[in-house]
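Q: what does this look like with succinic acid bound?
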Amino acid sequence: MEQFALDAIERLTTRPREDGTSFTVDPLTPVLGAEVSGLDLTKELTPEQTADIKRAFLAHHVLVFRDQQLTDEDHKRFAALFGPLHPVAAPVDGSDPYILEISADKDSRAVAGNGWHADGTADAEPSLGSMLHLTRIPEAGSGGDTLFANMHLAYDMLSPAMKTFLEGLTAVHDGALPWKGQTPPAGYEIPRNEHPVVVRHPETGRKLLFVNGPYTSHIVQLSRGESDAVLEMLYAHIARTHLLHCRVRWQPGTLVFWDNRCVQHHAVWDYYPHSRYGRRIAVDGTRPTA
Ligand code: SIN
């Protein structure tokens, strides 16, 4: 295995403060995810708490907050600390334009996110991140976990020759692909954009792999056959390299905030015919750049 760099950013564990506003951040794995304890997101965070959460987000990429009994307003207020809210791509008529319902039950024929992906990468400016708050977990009491994969490490673990090959390539991300076999809602303008295959995180500058199965149609500089083979190899690398992954087991009231710029996720649908329900709010991002 090639030598790879672990997170360059200092990890945050505990930040003791005498005024009682401290909280703890416990890593889920050495390279991805952390559980944050001691914060009540129904309350406004202090500037110091907000700064620490932002640091933890950049260091761990996926933050898990337990036992949060949130209204939509609480959820939106917390999301807005990270930037303007990102509208839902194809909102259901009459619904809140910033809240995506994630719902599955015995009548579901498919569920959102059941495969490795990043959200909305066909957009010119995909979201910075998403916050999903689940209020219902499968009745069986298990199943419905979400897996996350660290795209910095996915890049770092490639061979030097493969890194050199991918540098400078661009890929088309096509918003029509996830709708294959279905009709997008009337008026939905399907996004299609070209992004570098290797991009830099806009806040940390760290490189990462930026292609994903549901949205990436092809690598522009390669023939179709070459592009399919390279993308398939990269997706297998992402799916099979467990060192890149962390797993979140949900409870009612869990909120998870992931960095959509450097993490892919996979909502595992292993609980049919049971039900699972939550609400997701995303934050605006910027154009991915090499
Ligand atoms: C998604 O945002 O893709 C769904 C995530 C989940 O249901 O865990």
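The radius of gyration is 19 Å. The domain at 2-283 is CATH 3.60.130.10 (Double-stranded beta-helix).
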